[in-house]
Write a structure and sequence with these properties.
The complex is a heterodimer of chains A (332) and B (637). Chain A has 332 residues and is an alpha+beta fold. Chain A contains 9 helices and 12 strands. In chain A, the strands form 4 sheets. Chain A has a 5-stranded mixed β-sheet, with no helix packed on it. Chain A has a 3-stranded mixed β-sheet with strand order 4-10-9, covered by helices on one side. A two-stranded antiparallel sheet of chain A has the order 6-7. In chain A, β2 and β3 form a beta hairpin. In chain A, α2 packs antiparallel against α3 and α5 packs across α9. The longest helix of chain A has 37 residues. The radius of gyration of chain A is 27 Å and the shape is elongated. Chain B is an all-alpha fold and 637 residues long. The N terminus and C terminus of chain B are likely disordered. The structure holds protoporphyrin IX containing FE and copper (II) ion. Copper (II) ion binds next to loops of chain A.
Chain lengths: 332, 637
């Protein structure tokens, strides 16, 4: 048991010292997440103290009983009754305290009503669609798996799912919220600092639930506006001959049936919008870094890389692969 | 029989001990060989069978867990693909909950409760036989589908729409739904038997405030089963209707509601945890009392805590749904009620500590497991308080933090006491002791292995590792900890291996136990080990809570039961005053036939709704056979 205690203390120490993972609730960079982090640490400390107390009593009881040889008298039983009653009263107080603390924290976490920006998030098996709607349809655009936001602005996120239940979760910015078919949920996020924050689908959604990551890229307002402007634009026709051939292939092969590239005839909606795919950090919902090599590998055989995903394998020669990946890379 | 012998029906008053035992054995015995095994309605034989089967499922579920840990030890491992992995974690969860945890607790009760309340058999013994067969069939169905690579793959919670007709292709989710029906029928049947046994068959004088705590815990559990299981049967039947005959209960496009499923599921699923945990509470109280050499401190508060837990258990299912976006007020209510359940849990812990404090504990294996239980269960309870907080939960829900939490509750809170209970009652069930040395080894390995495996998962969860993922990417900072967890799981598995070896070895060649090797106080120790088929030579009369401590030499007995047929005493609910003598059913093959007919119908119904219509014919025939009144020589008089 001593070993257990030691391990517990050690691990608690690591835990409270904070783990700076890429996707950690304790690595908070947004107002909501910071508040949650404080609450988490407070509750963990209180509960650890309670556990330690119970363990001390347990150890004392075991030590004591080695020396004590008298039978329990009605007097000692009554004394014990009082102690137990006191312990129960203390439990009630602690529980009440934690409940109130949690109500307070909840109050501060509502979805922003007068948010600066609203982004629609659509969960799909197994990728994320981010829709930036604008009153002027020409200014609306969408992207996949990678969302840019300006720092220090409340962002209202509208969550919807077109297939099964998913859950939107970027721990460094806020807690999670489910995307449920037939309902609209909202959540708000806000980043205090520029940075790249990783998130991941948190509700089991089928075969590739493991590979359903997303990135929130928070940047200063001017950078954000520059990015948004570039995303609004339609795709620029490629100039490199290999990419030009790739574009023709894209339109001829089944690719265009599922993907949209604004400014071309491709207007499929089953897969992610690829208008600016070349500007994204990763492909396949965080599975691979976005390089020409990985684009080619993905197109050549999506089913081995991410078994069960909804993009079929299209038979292509190695020349065709090279052309397609050049085209994809050119879409910036 | 002739008229003049009528007044002289043979009763237990008329014979000396040896002759009485011979006659009772003849009346109550189980037939020889395979036929005897298939027809028996003896609660001890069925209970042992039930316990053994559940432990086999525990071992198989454990192997699945090891497979998952092998896959997760390294990032992007290719050992198990996503399809198999999803089947494996679904199987693990469903198997552990429906085929191990709930059945094993009910099975312990099937064995122990009639002995502890001082009767000769459980109420409705044929139903008891039936419930075992149907449980076995449900387990075989699930494991056969796994062997055929068509096991359910939508999680043990089977959320729609993933498990619905559109996304859950094939027969996998249907298999899940029918397996639920099997195990629920079985669990419900046992629950009803237990309630009736406890309320109507207690030994004379065992008034409500003298019922052993384990029996109390099983009564509360049985009521939970009776109230919670219908919700899941409703849910799984609606699901299978959606899938097979195109109803639209859960399809939002047609006016159904996705969240309806979650409400129904967790209205059952949360009490389910207490269905597993409350029997363990009873075991802990029993073991602590025996090894502290004193009555448990706070009998009444403990009973109240059991009942309070049982009631509160129905008021907190929504804490599984804190991230689906329910109204704030509702969430607050469920936070408060989830937190409140910590209070009866606290009462129990404090009463046990007080018992240890005021007793003179003897440190044998059973109590080691109970001490391990206190250490781990308190952690599980406290992390439960954490996830009951809505804001806290929005960060840890569906992460490994929750996996850690509920394993602390389920393994720490229920499996540790259960293992202690096996060490404790094994001598009664088999007549032989288990090894104290191996017991200490298995406890040490399981306790250390368990904490090393599951404690780090709290941290993995806070570091953002979601659950139900078959792999993760190398750039995530989880690899080291996952490798550590997987290695620790091997220690845990080794501990279980030692336990199983001890069980098998001791059953064959352990030292002979004697009637009451631990010096315990409850009635099951008032007879030879293993108990004879008729349990008690003469039915004991109970005058207090610890009859074997207060009347160590010879229990007072009630007499007047016939020896030539299966008679037992029916007593009043509150005071346990004898009211009547009633006969208990004899061995019969019909429960097995009925179970087979039900099995065929349920499996067939996965493929055609007409099965329900045609299947009712063989079920009707077997039930008629089951209940056909038969004149037997003993019944004539
Ligand atoms: C023997 C040691 C055990 C190990 C190493 C173990 C390990 C695991 C692992 C790795 C998961 C998957 C987590 C995920 O992907 O989300 C899991 C899930 C689960 N385990 Fe265990 N487990 C053990 C024993 C038990 C026991 C005894 C029970 C019940 C009494 C249990 C009940 C569950 C349940 C209900 C799930 C959830 C399945 C789901 O997400 O659908 N486990 N376990
Ligand atoms: Cu998802």
């Amino acid at each position: 048991m001593k070993a257990g205690v030691a391990v517990f203390l050690l691990l608690s120490a690591i835990l409270i010292a904070g783990c700076n993972g890429a996707q950690s609730a304790l690595n908070a960079e947004g107002a909501a997440a910071v508040q949650l982090k404080h609450l988490i640490i407070a509750i963990v400390i209180v509960c650890s103290a309670v556990w330690a107390l119970v363990m001390i009593v347990l150890i004392l009881a075991l030590l004591r009983s080695r020396t004590q040889r008298e039978r329990p008298s009605s007097e000692s039983e009554r004394r014990m009754g009082k102690l137990v009653a006191a312990a129960v009263a203390a439990t009630v107080l602690i529980i009440a305290g934690l409940t109130i603390a949690s109500f307070y924290a909840t109050r501060g976490l509502g979805a922003a009503q007068d948010a600066g920006i609203t982004i629609k998030v659509r969960g799909q098996q197994w990728w994320w669609q981010f829709i930036y709607d604008d009153a002027d349809p020409a200014k609306s655009f969408q992207t996949a798996n990678e969302m840019h936001i300006p720092v220090d602005v409340d962002i209202r996120i509208e969550l919807e799912s077109i297939d099964v239940i998913h859950s939107f979760w970027v721990p460094s910015l806020a807690g999670k919220r489910d995307l449920i078919p037939g309902r609209q949920n909202t959540i708000s996020i806000r980043a205090d600092r520029p940075g790249v924050y990783r998130g991941q689908c948190a509700e089991f959604c089928g075969l590739q639930h493991s590979h359903m990551a997303l990135f929130v890229i928070a940047e200063n307002m001017p950078d954000y506006q520059r990015w948004a402007a570039s995303q609004r634009g339609i795709s620029v026709a490629p100039s490199d001959p290999e990419a030009i051939a790739g574009k023709a292939l894209f339109m001829r092969k089944p690719c265009a049936a599922c993907h949209t590239i604004r400014g071309t005839d491709a207007s499929g909606t089953t897969g992610p919008d690829l208008t600016h795919v070349g500007s994204r950090k990763t492909i396949a919902a965080g599975l691979l870094d976005n390089t020409r090599g990985s684009l080619a590998a993905w197109i050549a055989d999506p089913q081995t890389l991410k078994p069960g995903n909804n993009m079929p394998m299209v038979l292509l020669s190695s020349d065709e692969l090279r052309q397609l990946s050049a085209y994809m890379e050119s879409l910036r | 029989m002739t008229k003049d012998t009528k007044s002289a029906v043979p009763t237990d008053l008329m014979f000396d001990d040896d002759e009485l035992e011979r006659r009772l054995a003849q009346t109550w015995m189980t037939g020889a060989g395979v036929w005897g095994a298939l027809t028996t309605v003896d609660h001890k034989i069925i209970g042992r069978r039930y316990i053994t089967t559940a432990f086999v499922f525990l071992a198989m579920g454990g192997l699945l867990a090891l497979a998952m840990r092998l896959q997760l030890a390294q990032p992007e491992a290719r050992f198990i693909g996503p399809d198999r992995y999803n089947q494996i974690f679904t199987m693990h969860g469903a198997n552990m909950m429906f085929l191990f945890a709930v059945p094993v607790m009910e099975a312990m009760a099937v064995y122990l409760v009639p002995l502890m309340v001082g009767t000769r058999n459980i109420a409705f013994p044929r139903l008891n036989a039936f419930s075992y067969w149907i449980f076995l069939a449900g387990g075989l169905l699930l494991w056969t589908s796994f062997a055929l690579d068509t096991a359910p793959d939508v999680g043990w919670f089977a959320y729609v729409p993933l498990s619905g007709p559109q996304y859950g292709v094939g027969k996998r989710a249907d298999l899940w739904a029918q397996m639920i029906t099997f195990t629920e029928v079985s669990a419900l049947a046992v629950a009803v038997e237990l309630v009736v046994t406890v309320f109507k068959q207690r030994a004379p004088g065992m008034s409500l405030d003298r019922i052993p705590l384990f029996v109390w815990s099983m009564v509360v559990t049985a009521f939970l089963v009776i109230m919670a299981m219908p919700a899941i049967m409703l849910a799984s039947s609606s699901l299978i209707l959606d899938r097979l005959v195109e109803t639209q209960f859960f399809n939002p496009a047609e006016g159904g509601d996705v969240l309806l499923w979650q409400h129904l599921f967790w209205f059952f699923g949360h009490p389910e945890v207490y269905i597993i945990f409350l029997p363990a509470v009873g075991m802990v109280s029993t073991i602590i009392a025996t090894f502290s050499r004193r009555p448990v401190f706070g009998y009444l508060p403990l009973v109240m805590a059991l009942i309070a837990t049982g009631i509160l258990a129905f008021g907190l299912w929504v804490h599984h749904m804190f991230v689906v976006g329910l109204p704030r007020l509702g969430e607050s209510f469920f936070t408060a009620s989830s937190m409140a359940i910590a209070i009866p849990a606290g009462v129990q812990i404090f009463c046990w500590l007080a018992t240890l404090w005021g007793g003179q504990p003897v440190f044998k294996t059973p109590i080691l497991f109970v001490l391990g239980f206190i250490v781990t269960f308190v952690i599980g309870g406290l992390t439960g308080v954490m996830v009951a907080s809505v804001p806290f939960d929005t960060q840890v829900h569906d992460t490994y933090f929750v996996v850690a939490h509920f394993h602390y509750v389920l393994v720490g809170g229920a499996v540790f006491p259960l293992l202690g209970a096996i060490y404790y009652w094994f001598p009664k069930m088999t007549g032989r002791m288990m090894s104290e040395t191996l017991g200490r080894w298995s406890f040490g390995l399981i306790f250390a292995g368990f904490n090393l495996t599951f404690f780090p998962m709290h941290i993995l969860g806070l570091e953002g590792m979601p659950r139900r993922i078959y792999t993760y990417q190398p750039e995530m900072p989880w690899a080291g900890m996952n490798m550590f967890v997987s290695l620790s799981a091997a220690i845990l598995a080794l501990g279980f291996l030692v336990f199983f070896i001890d069980v098998i070895r001791s059953a064959r060649s352990g030292p002979i136990a004697g009637d009451n090797p631990w010096g315990a106080s409850t009635l099951e120790w008032a007879m030879p080990s293993p108990p004879p088929c008729f349990n008690f030579r003469r039915i004991p009369v109970v005058g207090d809570r610890d009859p074997l401590w207060t009347q160590p030499d010879e229990l007072a007995v009630a007499t007047g039961l016939r020896t030539d047929r299966r008679e037992l005493i029916v007593s009043s609910v509150v005071e346990a005053q004898p009211e009547a003598n009633e006969s208990s059913p004899r061995n019969s093959i019909w429960p097995l036939w009925a179970a087979l007919a039900t099995t065929v119908t349920l499996i067939w119904s996965i493929f055609s709704p007409w099965a329900v219509v045609w299947g009712s014919i063989p079920i009707g025939i077997t039930l008629t056979g089951w209940f056909w009144p038969k004149q037997t020589p003993e019944d004539e008089s």
